[in-house]
Amino acid sequence: xxxxxxxxxxxxxxxxxxxxHPVCLSDDSRDKRLRVSVMVEWDNYRYVVDCGPDFRQQMxxxxxxxxxxIIFTHEHSDHVAGLDDIRPFVFRQGDLPxxxxxxxxxxxxxxxxxxFDEENRYPGAPAVVENEIFNEPFVLNELKVIPVLVKHAxxxxxxxxxxxxxxxxxVKTIDPVEREKLKDxxxxxxxxxxIEPHPSHFNLEEAxxxxxxxxxxxxYLTHISHLLGFHVEVEAQLPENVFLAYDNLTITx
Length: 253
Fold this sequence. Notes:
By secondary structure, this protein is an alpha/beta fold. 21% of the residues lie in helices and 28% in strands. The strands form two sheets. A seven-stranded mixed beta sheet has the order 6-5-4-3-2-1-14. Strands 7-8-9-10-11-12-13 form a seven-stranded mixed beta sheet. The chain starts with a strand and ends with a strand. Keywords: Hydrolase.
């Protein structure tokens, strides 16, 4: 399995528009972060988790010509705003499968009504095949995918386990029963927004404590804001098996 970090930034990305914060002015390419997303590939299949407002740029950078579907964690703008940009895939491949919690599908219907209006469909609109996800395993091309229910403040959202790889973003709390789904991981990806506590995301201390409890072989931090600090400085302070993800990083599981 191959995982590509398409974006590792928080909702505003880094640099933030107009910001003079030192991290936003950094010349290190690893400090420039698009909105958070990963691409997961196994055998000849390729799925993207979330498609935010940088989706088009991410697909061009990664030179992606086809995808087999998009899996959504939740409905916030930095995770769904790029849905219209699936059109090139739809025009080449046909209707694109999407996978999401019922509440997320309803939010997509509201935000992208022209995509889902079958009676008055704009001929140039993208077309999707909806697949509702529940808090139970489902199969994508012979691979079992396990949703992991977490809380983003009070909002219930999904992370996902693909084999020995798990991807969690926007986590603030997670119940013990859901933590059990994360045993014996090769790789865990989890959010670490900043140093200071935040009401709806893990900060660095919380993320590292969570990683210690789950005990994967390797862990990568994502959904990072400029307030976490410079990539090179933060990476140097992390435990031996924990790494700071950055855009376009590819790992093999």
